[in-house]
Design brief:
6-stranded mixed beta sheet, disordered C terminus, 11 strands, 339 residues, N-acetylglucosamine kinase-like BadF-type ATPase, alpha/beta, 5-stranded mixed beta sheet, ATPase_BadF
Amino acid sequence: MNEHLNGVLAIDAGNSKTDVALVAADGTLLGTARGGGFAPQRHGARAAIAGLAPLVAECAAAGGLPAAAGPGAPLVGHVQACLANADLPVEEEALAAALAEQGWGRTVAVANDTFGLLRAGTDSPRGVAVVCGAGINCAGLLPDGRTARFPALGMLTGDWGGGGGLAAEAMWHAARAEDGRGPATALAPAIAARFGLPSATAFAEALHLGELPHRRLHELVPLIFACARDGDATALALIERQAAEVAVLAEVALRRLDLLDQPTPLVLGGGVLAAREPLLLDALYERLRTTAPRALPRIVTAPPVLGAALLGLDRLGAPAAAHRALRAAFEGPALVPAA
């Protein structure tokens, strides 16, 4: 047994990165670690969870603790994982079972990462969160436990946006501009210049042939905003579409929970929204004033693993002082009110 047995191992695993934090029951942050993206849909639940072991060991070492040896020697009292690609109940169950097999905690809970964002953005079990990072998703929660969720399986279930969606659309428009199928756009020369290639189509070919890693596609997102600020019509249209997607997710979730006519926290996070690009936020807030005027938007700038850690402390029944200590450990206020 170790002295921090009643603490929390918090995991926030997204499409592009994974954060792990070890937290004592009093809210003391003992250790953190960061790794790459989390993809159980490609690797399987067991393999994806097993891939977290080095991060857990790094956290334990930072806290001066031995890594868990198995179910008989858990590292913490509770493991709280908020995971991207845990979109369906069957996926959550498989991931929870794989986590339990690791023996890192006495108890284990898995939730979609959007619920972690919601918890990071409010201390009330009532609200809606939209995450717009590499992908896009939304979740809402009421104090009685009712939720509003979306399958979030990409185009198959009607989803569009996030950094991945924006980048793919930018390439679609740039390629068509270059070969004459579409109107001219500043995105095409901007993409070519960013990668030192003769054209955006050459960048597409480099990705296809494996000469450049596919993750570099996300570097297009800042180019979209730069071109939009210079007045490019195509880039501006993409940003407007992204704002519309975020707004409609929020509106539908609020409606499902009968919260449209009540002041309700609307927590916004993920890399695209947390960048606080005025063009995107102005378009989003303008739409919300019409479709969800009682929503109270706020942007989370703290690391999303904070939400998982707070959920873990909730599970342990930790006092409010522990929650305050943990928030302070993540370098100040986590909430940035909307303009």
